[in-house]
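Need a sequence for this fold. Nothing fancy.
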């Protein structure tokens, strides 16, 4: 868990793409749960942090 450092506004790639076909997500809220927003259709999903850590593939773009 400590090897993957992500923060709010980072764009990440998950293991499975969204049904719209895009696999880029922006982290919009962090806490016990993490809210990510699909960069293709703007659908947002709330995922528990533990599940997010398991499904995260890589960080595509760090926030400025």
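Here you go.
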């Amino acid at each position: 868990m400590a090897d993957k450092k992500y923060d709010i506004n980072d764009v990440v790639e998950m293991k499975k793409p969204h049904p719209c076909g895009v696999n880029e997500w922006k982290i919009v809220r962090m806490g016990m749960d993490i809210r990510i927003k699909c960069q293709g259709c703007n659908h947002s999903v709330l995922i528990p942090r533990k599940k997010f850590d398991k499904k995260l593939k890589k960080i595509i773009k760090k926030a400025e």
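For context: Residues 34 and 47 are 5 Å apart (CA to CA).
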